[in-house]
Amino acid sequence: MSVPQYLRKVSLKIGNDDQALDLSDLHFRFVIRRGDIQTPNTADIIVYNVSDNTAQSVQKEYTRVVLQAGYDGSFGVIFDGTIKQVRRGRESPTDTYLAITAADGDSAYNFATLNVTLAAGSTAKDRLDEMEKVLGPHGVSIGYTPTLDDSKLPRGRVFFGPVKNYLSWLVKNAEAKWSIQDGTVQICPLNSYVPGTPVIVSYATGMIGLPEETINGLNMKMLLNPNVKIGTLIQIDNASIQQYRFGMSTSNTVDNENILLMRDKHNDGYYYVMIAEHYGDTRGNDWYTVVRCLAVDATWGTGDYVSRGVALDSGAIKSYG
Q1: CA distance 30 to 82
Q2: Number of other residues whose CB lies within 10 A of the CB of residue 6
Q3: Strand locations in the chain (E)
Q4: How far apart are CA 82 and CA 84, in angstroms?
Q5: Which of 123, 193, 248, 294 is deepest in the core (most CB within 10 A)?
Q6: Backbone angles phi and psi of 301, in degrees to 5
Q7: 264 band by pLDDT with thresholds 50, 70 and 90
Q8: What is the distance between the terminal CA atoms of the chain, rounded to a whole angstrom?
Q9: CA distances for 181 relative to 23, 36, 258, angstroms
Q10: What's residue 180's pLDDT?
Q11: Which residues pair with 67 in a beta bridge?
Q12: How far is residue 17's CA from residue 152's CA, in Å, rounded to a whole number?
């Protein structure tokens, strides 16, 4: 997917199940932190010069915040979560602010509890279905899930405890990892990715500076792009990468070998998005996405799948990172 980035767009709505406030026209700043780890994604949003009535409504009545941002032609949700704290303050004698801290799926992460007995013959899919039942009241559903092991339990078993613990157990057996993305549990195999057409990142589509190779992955900055999702692929020109300088001491041997391994796997320029952070200021210069990603060795088969916009099969990939 290659979309030129111009003409900023943004939408900020705060509300509940019955009504919402649209604060899109006000001056606000935001920092969104997303990753492929179990800890919920977070948002810090500061809205300036809000009326007293609006501030009181946000503090006392509303629980959900949805932030969409991007550019004309490349616009979408970058955060959808629950308000955890609202603070009021003054930045100067003339400017007040409303600071909102929010999290994506933290209620389910902290409080969803499984309490069920499954009969002999139950499968991983059965366990996942039971988890979804208790995640639902906390506003979380089960999203993308790869094919799970269909082996059956030889006897009945009681499942009691936090859902997050059972999810971790389930994905460990499936050699996968899980995270909550926009109110859905996403399960991604360790050697695969979430299916979809890769986002092409270049100077023409908003890349800023040069990608930098580090021992923790490839770091890259671009104009704000809501299409860059956790667990999906981006594509870049490998010639633009600033390579990591090897350490010369014996303690650097493992790091150097890992870098060489990663280089072997990114000959085709495809990378798995591990961390994506969005920064924005509706009256300032900040309007960026910063990512950390890992190289993948993708097997595309015949034909130019990317240019034809065909969704990729998540099984067509080898190991990454």
Answers
A1: 15
A2: 11
A3: 8-15, 20-22, 28-35, 42-48, 64-71, 74-90, 96-103, 113-118, 141-142, 157-162, 176-181, 184-189, 199-200, 207-214, 217-223, 233-235, 270-281, 287-298, 317-320
A4: 6
A5: 193
A6: 80, -150
A7: low
A8: 23
A9: 23, 9, 29
A10: 96
A11: 12, 79
A12: 40
- The CA distance from 141 to 108, in Å, is 10
Give the CA-trace dihedral at 282, 284, 287, 291, to 10 degrees. -120
* Residue 125: C-alpha distances to residues 139, 151, 219 (Å): 20, 10, 36
- Among the ranges given (1-15, 89-103, 121-135, 139-153), the one the predictor scored with the smallest mean pLDDT: 1-15
For 8-106, CATH gives 2.40.10
* Domain 199-320, classified CATH 3.10.290, yes or no: no
Count how many Cα atoms sit within 13 Å of the Cα of residue 52 in the half-sphere of its side chain.
Answer: 0
Model confidence pLDDT, tens digit, residues 202-229: 888 899 999 988 877 889 999 999 999 9
Residues 6+ apart with CB under 8 A from 273: 36, 228, 229, 230, 231, 232, 233, 234, 291, 293
List, for residues 119-142, the tens digit of each pLDDT value.
998 998 999 999 999 999 999 999
Q: Where are the domains of the chain?
A: 8-106, 108-181, 199-320
Q: Mind spelling out the 3-state secondary structure of 89-126?
A: EECCCCCEEEEEEEECCHHHHHHCEEEEEECCCCCHHH
Contact between 259 and 242 under an 8 Å Cβ cutoff? The reply is: no
Contact status, residue 231 vs residue 186, Cβ threshold 8 Å: yes
Q: What pLDDT is stored for residue 306 in this prediction? A: 33
Dihedral over Cα of 202, 206, 208, 214: its sign = negative
